[in-house]
Amino acid sequence: MEKILVTGFEPFGGEQTNPSWEVVKALPRTIAGRSVVRERIPVSFRRGPAAALAAIQRESPSIVLCVGQAGGRAKVTPEFVGINYADARIPDNDGEQPQGRRLSPGAPDAHFSTLPVRAMAQVMVDDGVPAAVSHSAGTYVCNAVLFSVLDALFSSRSTARAGFVHVPNSPEQACRLAGEAPSMPVALMLQGIVSGLECACSWG
Ligand code: PCA
Is 88 a pocket residue for ligand 1 (Cβ < 6 Å)? Predict the structure, then answer.
């Protein structure tokens, strides 16, 4: 059976939970006839990409979807592009805070996601889940994981397709935040991720 590798992150930035892992944990065992393999990865510029790449090596998935939390966003957002750049606003979970530097000198400036991001956002919306394509995954660990995964698959001429989806804060997180703090129930995020993966499986 073909495999879908889905990654979620551990908590970071002083939070108790990370909704990306809550969603990944709750995924069904199979989607569109492919088995779902899940991996929790560290919020670390060094260890995060390495953990995602190790899971790809181990599992040889046909589809890779990394999921992360984007506090402040109100929608589920498939990411269009990963860029070869790091500029951390806060230290990662190893205390590293790279600023204004390339992730991989010599690699291309950017890689576009090889998942059908526009179609994925559309099926999510059709399914009643607020969603939109994002054209920037930021310059923190999520972007580093997306760029590194796409660069590794591109360099090895892999036929596996890969991408990233950011999810909003959960309501539990928003309750502890001051001021405007958009959130979404994890069950709704889950519905969006499942619809998006079904779309990715049926495509190309
Ligand atoms: N979000 C962060 C890193 C881990 C996560 O869940 C980001 O958007 O870079």
Answer: no
